[in-house]
């Protein structure tokens, strides 16, 4: 491995290491902003709504669609932008997740990383074109060329920034960015989520974070920033020096970020987001530090944080040699659904748990999207499951259920205390 031996010959204190760090960060920067700056982004699918399409084409299509653009303002629910990312073999899980979190108000960008083949990516794109509501509302986009990823490291942050840049370009004036992996799943319907966030000030960021000066950052080289196929991260023996110009913060890599903060990180009008991208460009777990550290060190955004990501980790399944008792399954389900959280991950292969969430929480019909108040007719409170969601309903209306009220009360308690 030429690269790892090259890396290992560098002591972290040598100028070589400093140079390598700078080079890598320059690459992170260009990588993260390329789709924002270049007219030709790596998106092959989805005209006329693709980011490559003439802006007027998308606008014209939206105008022709009349009332299909979500109304915004006081009294209306917010709009979420979802960046959903998966790897090789994740096409089905990504489509299932998309159906579970679909709502005509929102925007969706689906990304299969470079580990997935062209065939799988084409299948995902063709699925996104086959669902009537996605076409009608034009709010599902598929990345035409996957980013190389290891799942950790700075390439994970770069991919989110890049996805965010695209979502900013495709517009629709969204309020919050939600990043989900293929193994994640919602614990509430979108109606419930939109309801719970309706009264939340749109500038708040839901990001759990704590000061972290303990972690020793091993110097790594994330080749995924440099190449087009997935690569494993190489480790060096050195450690990153502690910065003294800013304090490090760590938290879940799955925050819900306000549009203003996302724009701040993508466009980087001041130096902090860039400086921190450089700092984290050769550290592992950059995704657990980057947004947290930018936020907590920024004058402008420090006060707009809620120290919670409204998300849970799925409790680990019982060990395989143990008989998976019905009680245990029940308590795992209760822990998730009773928590009041909006999302959970990672589900692994727990089909029984997912199916129960589909049936009892989302009431999602087999192979259909989660119904909501936006469905015209046929989605009454009773017997939702057997009806397809038909188009033409009011996309500005939401109908909350018990899960929505639990989430709203969690959020009110978080926001009320000023967290
Ligand atoms: C966020 O909450 C955690 C515990 O829930 C706490 O340890 C941490 O200090 C809090 N972060 C900040 C910045 O207050
Ligand atoms: C943030 O909050 C602190 C204390 O709550 C306050 O002193 C400071 O002025 C606030 N900063 C901004 C930019 O609002």
From TrEMBL:
GO cellular component: membrane
Keyword Cell division: no
Keywords: Glycoprotein, Glycosyltransferase, Membrane, Signal, Transferase
Domain of life: Eukaryota
Signal peptide stretch: 1-17
Coiled coil: none
Topology relative to the membrane: Single-pass type II membrane protein
InterPro entries named among the record's database cross-references: GLCAT14A/B/C, Glyco_trans_14
GO molecular function: glucuronosyltransferase activity
Compartments where found: Membrane
Xref: Pfam families: Branch (PF02485)
Primary site of residence: membrane
Region (Disordered): 309-332
Protein's recorded name: Glycosyltransferase family 14 protein
Annotated organism of origin: Setaria viridis
